[in-house]
Design a protein that fits this description.
By secondary structure, the protein is an alpha/beta fold. It is built from 5 helices and 8 strands, in the order βαββββαβββααα. It has 2 domains: 57 residues, Signal recognition particle alu RNA binding heterodimer, srp9/1; 79 residues, Roll (2,3-Dihydroxybiphenyl 1,2-Dioxygenase, domain 1), CATH 3.10.180. β7 and β8 form a beta hairpin. α4 crosses α5. It is elongated, with a radius of gyration of 18 Å. The model has no long low-confidence stretch (mean pLDDT 97).
């Protein structure tokens, strides 16, 4: 059992958000759903929480209302194997959302994501600091990360 579970506060659209995320990530599932009961009659029967899993990471989605919107202070970073995975996740997660810089985006629910190809991490860790610096500068000019462009910048 996972000891620490990120709780994502939604404005009464947690079920829609969870189903959206489950449609994007192949290895994902709903683990448990709880509903509002008699203590909150105006919401009775509606989803209160959803415990779900994406790629082995558990999350809790809470339908709490509008008072606590997401900010970039918390983001979900996704380790991507290749450009195809970057492209697929970027396309799906920016649907109705907002692309940002350096592989960051906000999805249609306002949750921030970092779509990070492994190649970027490898290039930034290069022992040749000039090469790593060129890669960093190239990344600063990007929204979605382009691995081929980073590799060209490293030359």
């Amino acid at each position: 059992m996972q000891i620490i579970t990120p709780c994502l506060w939604f404005n009464f659209n947690a079920e829609e958000a969870v189903n959206h995320y489950l449609s994007i990530f192949k290895n994902s599932k709903i683990l448990e759903v709880s509903r509002y009961g008699d203590a909150m009659p105006e919401f009775k029967g509606k989803v209160l929480t959803m415990r779900f899993e994406i790629e082995g990471q558990e999350f809790l989605a809470l339908n709490g209302g509008a008072q606590f919107p997401f900010t970039e202070a918390i983001s979900l970073s996704v380790d991507c194997v290749d450009q195809a995975e970057v492209d697929q996740l970027w396309t799906r997660l920016t649907e109705g959302g907002t692309p940002s810089q350096c592989g960051w985006l906000k999805d249609k629910f306002g949750l921030s994501w970092q779509i990070v190809p492994r190649a970027l991490v490898k290039l930034l860790k290069d022992s040749d600091t000039a090469k790593a610096s060129r890669v960093m500068q190239a990344m600063f000019s990007m929204s979605k990360i382009d691995i081929a462009a980073l590799e060209r910048a490293s030359q």
